[in-house]
Amino acid sequence: MTSAGVGRRGFLGNGAAALAGTLVLSGPAACAQAPTARPTPGEPTDPRIEALLAKMSLADKIAQLNMPQVLPDGLVPKTSPVTTDEHRKAYAAGKWRDLGQGGGFFGFFNETIAGALPVKQPRTPRQQAEAANELQKVAKGSKLGIPLLQIAEGTNGHSAPYATIFPAGPSIAATWNTGLVGAVYGAVAAEARACGTHVLNTLVAEVFRDPRFGRGCEGYGEDPYLVGGIIGAIVRAVQGTDVSRSDRTVASLCHFPLQTPNVGGLEGSSVEIGERELRAIHLPSWRAGFADAGALMTLACQSTIDGVPTHRSEKLLTQVLRGELGFRGVVISEGGGLTTLVTERVAADQKQAGAQAIKAGVDVGITWEDAYLDGLKDGVKDGSVPMELVDRAVRRVLMLKLRLGLFDNPYVDPARAEQIVGGAAHRALALQAAREGITLLKNDGGLLPIKSSIKRIAVIGPNADVPENLTGDYAPWPPKNGMPTVLASIKVAAPAGTRVTYAKGCGINDADRTGFAKAVATARGADLVVLVLGERSKGFLFEGATGGEGVDAADLNLTGVQDSLVKAVHATGKPVVIVLVAGRPSSITWPAEHVPAIVQAWLPGERGGEAIADVLFGKCDPGGRLPVTVPRSVGQLPIYNDVKPMRAAADGYVGLKASPLYDFGHGLSYTTFRYDNLKISRRRIKAGETTEVRVDVTNTGHRTGQEVVQLYLADQQSSVSLPVKQLRGFAKVELKPGQKRTVRLTLGPREMELVDESMRQVVEPGTFEVQVGSSSARIHLRGTFEVVAR
Predict the structure, then answer these.
(1) Which single residue of 35, 223, 371, 542 has CA 20 to 30 Å from 688?
(2) CB atoms within 10 A of CB 339
(3) What CATH architecture is 434-638?
(4) What class is the 7-37+48-418 domain?
């Protein structure tokens, strides 16, 4: 049976029915136990798992390799066992059609589809836990008694009703605070496991280098070193040292190995890069997640990379992932990912696609694709799929369930779920993360924080009073404790006696200017205008979305007539503060030149409105620094901080500078900092040794503030062309007025290595320049050290 459609858009759109698959087993294969292959050398196994595997029929094994997305009827194939409680119980019991006991579900708790679908009464956390337990009880009572594995999105919170909605990827990255990142995702894991989820997916380890790409709102920016630091913190927090604990889950890193830079910035389009760029730029963050932190699941990207679709790439999914990066977990498919092999015409049909994918190393299908249903059964039957490959994948799934402790206790405590999910401590953490991610891009004349002398504030703009636009893809919905908008939060935070007025002005992405007159009149009646603009980053399921999954941009300008609204309000002569609520950087060239203050709020989550108000009124320092480069125009793409020397020296375009609008790492504070006394502990080291960089940072202003100390390294001569400088260390410090702190950053082999002509990671002898500053463009101190041969 062949399938049509590609990716989640194709899966959830008109091509959904074409992905239907039905497994029908007859004859000897239906009842005979297939011979079990020996475990693959080097992969974890257990006698208990081997004994169970020996009892399983082919139907049992294939069912364990399918964990279908739980979506409403009409959004999934009719043969998928997900649309009703009865169907899901049948799958858990091994009574769905002719399949064995199902392996689990993807998104079982996300019944509102992150708020896209109206649900009269979503399950409470207690009810979620009870529903999970009920399914596990059914599974436990089946012939084999294998527990279910529940996978959920976790990019900005456990994707289930009433879970805490934390800031989305760019907001998290903008904090540059790995300790805070760990605390946030530790809380997400605790809420998820309390409800019965075992895996948090969409923890995005890939580096995003094309801001046109809508899914960039899920990730942590453009720099491999920053993303690697964040991912390491996430995995350690989510999994901990014992993933079977009641507050830990498996970390599923996405989307291996990359989706951008892709052709045209369009989701699903091919990636055309060489192996050196793949290894030097895109694999380091995965190494941080797998080799260093030990993540136990990953989702294979649907991309075709240098002509080879990832879902059939044995080189990427086995040789690199398991051989080089030390991965010892389960690989799941992207939504509709198995079908990409047919779409890209490297497989003739679903049967061939399944054979290619399981050989490459895809263990589990999360969408109901024939490749891992009848196609896989037929492949085993005719010998095109060796049983050893099926056993390999099933063994990995069962081992993961064993490590999670599910064979001994698959149940959760509903009372604990009720107590933990959306609790005060997690809400406080969401507020802190939102505050630390807000980035002050411009503040001419010290317009911010808002002075007490300002008695009339006009809040204008399409994102001023829309709570859901504060969140990103796969956000939990609805919020347990409400979600104050920017407007509501400003009204609360404003000093007594301050008058706050509001006008929407325009929509996010339409040509309607009828609201301009009211917006201009509102601005004229105020002492200061807060103009809240940006995106609706909710992905392809949401009407009017301008960002998120499947919503890519042809340019980076403000959508609709927002630019015109800025100019109309600016023409009143009133001082204007722009607040950008968005998941991607915006090419705001005119506002950057004419508007005195600009705040990048990103997608700050359920307490984002409050955090924005806190920053505007100076209750806290804007703690964010850019995790991406902000271009002046889409015509500059690709543009990022670690460019090669010839690009760095290039002249500008006709009528446009070559430099970005705002540099990577940029962000202002309400206070000032001084850098002194750069010291390098060892100025001559052997390859493989380390040296320490120390620098004194002093708060020279009159307010407590946060500074992100950034260390860039420049290899003065190398065997291959390297970037002019690369981020190789960072630390966030909070300092009171007059306070000084010595920041220490260690440089080891990982920071000095390069990928040579033979694709080896090596540290070459030579001179390195250390550059320490407050952004990639603002370098305050420099020094050098030398690496000599061993």
Answers:
(1) 223
(2) 31
(3) 3-Layer(aba) Sandwich (3.40)
(4) alpha beta
